[in-house]
Amino acid sequence: MGKGTRPGDDRPPSPPAVAAVTLASVRARLRTEELRPGDTTLIFTQHVPNAGERSRYLVTTDPYELTEDVWAARARALVNRLAGEDRGRVLFCLDRLQNLPMAAIAVHFEGKTAPFHVRAIAERQDAHAAHSAECVRLLKRCQHLFSLVLGGKGELFYDAPGGAQEARARDVYEFRSAPRQSGRRQGGTLLLQDPPGDV
């Protein structure tokens, strides 16, 4: 499992070009692997540019450990636990030039056409916070597209833990309350987001 270290230069990079991840690019790169009967994992890697560099960011399902104290404790713990269990449970966005994890989203899904349930959204709470938020948007877009490529509806559910994290999911990341009959729920409040309008 990879580990990120804080670089000497703490200046935030420019954010990733979120729209660079398209349905076609995901379809070309996304692979599935059956670990056990009925247990499918995802394998995905794509380089994503920013304003000045063609491949500044790396989006990957390869396991990576969040070691810095710049993450919400619950999200960090859940991301690290799930990433350590099986590849494909967490999607990471890395700044390749600084060897710095910028964001991670842990997900649960029970089959290729099953809904994607976000378990945790890990974003940096330091000088890189604004760009980390853009990386979260990038990772959300990838998860929407994963669902569509696998034959699902492209929806994302989020088992929001409540409080400030739920408010941020609604206000910043545009989740809304899910219908009461919607699928699986771990705890907290179940939120829903429709797929992007440009796919």
Topology readout:
Layout: E1 2-3, H1 23-29, E2 31-36, E3 39-43, E4 45-48, E5 57-60, E6 64-65, H2 73-85, E7 90-95, E8 100-108, E9 116-123, H3 129-149, E10 156-160, H4 163-171, E11 176-177, E12 189-193
Parallel strand pairs: 1-6, 9-10
Antiparallel strand pairs: 2-3, 4-5, 5-7, 7-8, 8-9, 10-12, 11-12
Describe this structure in words.
The protein is of the alpha+beta class and 199 residues long. The chain has one domain (2-193): 3-Layer(aba) Sandwich (Aminopeptidase). The protein is built from 4 helices and 12 strands, in the order βαβββββαβββαβαββ. It has helices spanning 23-29, 73-85, 129-149, 163-171; strands spanning 2-3, 31-36, 39-43, 45-48, 57-60, 64-65, 90-95, 100-108, 116-123, 156-160, 176-177, 189-193. It has an 8-stranded mixed β-sheet with strand order 4-5-7-8-9-10-12-11. Strands 1-6 form a two-stranded parallel sheet. The longest helix is centred in the C-terminal third of the chain and has 21 residues, at 129-149.
Gross morphology: globular
Largest sheet: 8 strands, mixed
Strands in their spatial order, largest beta sheet: 4-5-7-8-9-10-12-11
Q: In percent, how much strand structure appears in the residues?
A: 25-35%
CATH architecture: 3-Layer(aba) Sandwich
Number of domains: 1
What is the gyration radius calculated from CA atoms? 16 Å
Number of strands: 12
Could you tell me how far the N terminus lies from the C terminus, measured between alpha carbons in angstroms? 33 Å
Please count the helical segments: 4
Percent helix:
25-40%
| Coarse structural class | alpha+beta
Q: CATH topology, which one?
A: Aminopeptidase
CATH C-level class is Alpha Beta
Name the average pLDDT.
87
